[in-house]
Design goal:
With 839 residues, the chain is mainly beta. It is built from four helices and 53 strands. Helix content is 3%, strand content 44%.
């Protein structure tokens, strides 16, 4: 865990402070080709390879202190750690939107120092967009340590060093220091006299003395209520040499749930469960997470004790009913190569992805290839600040102490430092005669990491519900138990005007689609539940993401409808770990701990999820209950909700970027993201690369079809010349592409729709115009011989605009569409597009 200056002294006294940690193994042939230290590539460039994407973008710089070669606390900032909780804020339009309250604490003393005020705390209530200083006292900040969230929504902080001499036999019981917060970290109180009973594994030796135990990572609470606190323990045996043995372990305890939904905090007695043990290596820092099947995964830093050179390696330990499995972490594309890192971090996003973060010498993130946590992929560098020169990689530049904080269903912030703290001799850190990758300024950075699924086309259900373009019919409107700290609980005792504490968040059951799988961030029903969505239009649905009551073996029935009257059980495919349903549309989970994804094949406007109730006394709900913790839907429509700068899935993009209409154009748009085409000069690299000045987006339809329907939401922002739409076909003669239909938005005063007649442009006399800065839905029904254009009017009703004449050579199929700004010169034309489909 991150050590305070005073805590460092206690660690040294207890014999717990060692250089680093990871299982040391003999060199193998595979390792001969491995880099030391391990290296990680930067964020991938577009176009992305098929499959999931991990993309890193610039974030914020909450702290800038001073230059290196200093021991002045006012100029030092390193070792950030964070914790957070969901909050519900009211936006400028009066909508209740989930956000994230994030507390970030960093060290401002040198390594091993004893400054009077070694910490500074900062707070963000807008998911890390802005930070302000916290007025916590030094003792308050010092006592926080590592912080995790309990299932009742409260935060649990662990920061302790236990040291003693003789141990009675092979066990010992010691007091540990824990704090708890019911207002998302604003105030804290001590857990009354918690203790831990240590049990050492039978390893062929007798424990002679207990050197100490240190909290070593962020605590978690499993779905069954078991709290797990990572710890590092050191003992000596009774041999003449008094050999030292170290353990990485979990302190576990299951508190009692009260009828008010809050765990009791008296008489907490933890039991030590060893996960890694060695007489040669030390295991000082780690992270734990619950796997989908309930097993406990630990990723641990380990290092050979007394090694002549640093070599921190990441290990895994998986604890389950069959025992504990251990080994070295590896990357999928570097099999056999150890992964270097300190203080590993684990978090599971609402999209189901398990994310690993660590560092030294470079900070990185990676995603699990499966539900074991042994092998990781898509490793991506988030921050590098190395020093040049032999041996400097481990001791100069960024410390590698990183902290992950999820802020959205597919997004996590990685907090890193630029320089590790110098020691008392003003060495390390960013001092010395070195040139640095970035610079030698002490500062804290947050890096935005998007973890995107392989599939595109996620529907923004929450946005559509808030804006009335989708509708919900449900009985899953029960509030959480009385003392649960839920999303609507404000930060602190005095909520701000923006805190949505008395809103329709629960009554509208929005927790099921809010992009969070925090235990109480879901839709709850007393008994069986029904959650029926009218999506507002027909979608070709391809995938369902579903998280039900965490840890409970429960059922759900999925059905879809084209008319809202007749519902048909859905045809599903099932992920590994979930048995196929005994009947169509049935999901029987073994007790999932996160979102799982099911293949779905349905053309539907309505979808219904019916959940089966189970006994819920263990979570503070009398009688039976059921829950949808998270619900996600994917379709063939390009809605770009899980995209980064450049949208995936298109055959060609130029001067096209993912945008947030609510932030920069239309605050009332019904989804968070859309695509902006912007006709700008080639010097504007935010939208264009090289000398391309025409905004252009081309989509190639799947398969061969003689007729397709093109649909899109369009928002013309500037029409200096014109905005153009093409529908292409494959020539009957040779299969090559031929322009079949050509239409657009004119630059006349009203911005009428127009079409290419083959000899010139003609303005449509009928139908609504494409009003500037207003969303219009269009639909083009195109065959190989004819096409018809429809558009919505100001009241949202679809109106026939007119027929589009067929152009060019005969075509045997309709194959692609293109949307573009006009011409190769810079006119300033600009359009925003959303929900594009080509079926």
């Amino acid at each position: 865990m991150r050590s305070s200056p005073r805590r460092l002294a206690a660690l040294v006294a207890a014999g717990l402070l060692v250089p680093a940690l990871a299982v040391a193994t003999a060199d193998t042939a595979a390792e001969a080709a491995c880099s030391t230290p391990s290296t990680v590539a930067g964020s991938p460039s577009f176009p992305y390879a098929a499959g999931p994407v991990v993309a890193v973008a610039g974030g914020k710089e909450p702290v800038t202190a001073g230059a290196g070669n200093t021991t002045d606390p006012a100029k030092i900032a390193w070792r950030p750690f964070t914790f957070g909780a969901d909050v519900v804020k009211r936006d400028a339009s009066g909508n209740d939107v989930k956000s994230r309250a994030i507390t970030m604490v960093y060290q401002k003393d040198f390594d091993g120092g004893s400054a009077a005020n070694p910490y500074q705390g900062m707070l963000s209530t807008d998911s890390g967009a802005t930070f302000s200083n916290l007025s916590f006292s030094t003792d308050q900040l010092k006592n926080l340590g590592e912080v995790g969230q309990l299932n009742d929504g409260r935060l649990l902080a662990v920061n302790f060093v236990v040291q003693n001499g003789a141990v009675p036999g092979t066990t010992g019981q010691y007091y540990v220091k824990l704090q708890i917060s019911g207002d998302k970290g604003a105030t804290w109180s001590s857990v009354p006299t918690p203790s831990a009973v240590l049990h050492y594994p039978a390893s062929g030796y007798t424990v002679g003395s207990f050197l100490g135990m240190s909290a070593a990572g962020r605590p978690i609470q499993k779905a069954d209520g078991t709290i797990a606190i990572p710890v590092y323990v050191a003992v000596k045996d009774t041999t003449a040499a008094q050999t030292r043995h170290s353990y990485f372990a979990a302190l576990t305890y299951t508190p009692t749930m009260g009828v008010d939904g809050q765990y009791g905090t008296t008489d907490w007695v933890f039991t030590m469960v060893p996960l890694l043990a060695s007489a040669a290596d030390d295991y000082t820092e780690g992270a734990v997470a619950e796997l989908q099947d309930g097993r406990l995964l630990a990723v641990v830093r380990g290092e050979v004790r007394g090694a002549s050179a640093p070599d921190p390696r990441l290990n895994y330990a998986i604890l389950g009913p069959g025992g504990t499995e251990t080994g070295l972490i590896s990357f999928a594309d570097k099999a056999g190569c150890p992964v270097n890192g300190v203080l590993p971090q684990l978090t599971r996003l609402a999209n189901g992805t398990l994310v690993l973060g660590s560092g030294r010498p470079d900070n990185f993130v990676a995603i699990a290839t499966d539900e074991t946590g042994k092998v990781w992929s898509h490793e991506t560098n988030t921050w590098t600040n190395r020093a040049s020169g032999s041996g400097s990689n481990w001791t100069y530049g960024s410390s590698g102490y990183t902290s992950l904080e999820p802020v959205a269903g597919n997004q996590v912030l990685d907090f890193v430092d630029n320089c590790q703290g110098p020691n008392g001799g003003r060495k390390n850190g960013c001092a010395g005669a070195y040139t640095y990758t970035t610079n030698n300024v002490y500062r804290i950075e947050s890096r935005t990491v998007d973890v995107l699924p392989a599939e595109t086309g996620r529907i923004d259900i929450a946005g559509r519900l808030r804006h009335g373009t989708a509708h919900l019919t449900t009985n899953m409107t029960s509030a959480s138990p009385a003392k649960v700290t839920g999303p609507t609980t404000p930060y602190g005792s005095a909520p701000s005007a923006a805190d949505a504490t008395s809103t329709d968040y629960w009554s509208q059951a929005e927790g099921a689609v809010d992009g969070s799988t925090a235990f109480w961030s879901g839709a709850l029903a007393d008994g069986d539940g029904s959650y029926q969505l009218d999506l507002g239009r027909t979608y070709n649905l391809t995938k369902l993401g579903l998280a039900l009551l965490p840890g409970a073996a429960v059922t759900a029935r999925i059905s879809t409808s084209a008319d809202g009257v007749i519902f048909t059980p859905a045809t599903l495919s099932y992920p590994s770990g979930v048995p196929a349903g005994a009947e169509a549309g049935l999901i029987s989970t073994p007790g999932d701990r996160g979102t799982r994804f099911y293949g779905l094949n349905a053309a539907a406007r309505w979808i219904r999820v019916e959940t089966g109730g189970v006994p819920c006394a263990g979570i503070g709900v009398p009688g039976n209950c059921s829950m949808i913790n998270e619900l996600q839907l994917f379709s063939t429509t390009a809605s770009v909700e899980d995209e980064v700068s450049i949208p995936r899935g298109f055959a060609e993009t130029a001067c096209a970027r993912v945008t947030q209409p609510g932030n920069n154009l239309d605050p009332n748009h019904d989804s968070q993201y859309a695509i902006r085409l912007k006709d700008v000069g080639g010097t504007d690299d935010s939208y264009c690369d090289g000398d391309k000045v025409q905004g252009r987006l081309t989509y190639q339809g799947a398969g061969t079809k003689t007729a397709r329907t093109f649909q899109a939401q369009v928002y013309p922002h500037q029409v200096t010349n014109s905005l153009l739409f093409d529908i292409d076909g494959a020539r009957t003669s040779n299969g090559t592409t031929s322009l079949a239909y050509h239409f657009g938005i004119s630059n006349d005063a009203a911005h009428h729709w127009m079409y290419d007649s083959g000899s010139g442009w003609v303005t449509f006399a009928n139908g609504p115009a494409a009003t500037i800065d207003r969303w219009t839905s269009i639909r083009v029904v195109a065959s190989t011989t004819s096409a018809t254009l429809y558009a919505t009017d100001a009241q949202g009703a679809e109106v026939l605009v007119g027929a589009l004449p067929k152009l060019g050579d005969p075509v045997g199929s309709i194959s692609a569409y293109t949307v573009a700004t006009n011409g190769s010169a810079t006119f300033g034309d600009e359009i925003v597009l959303d929900d594009l489909s080509f079926e």
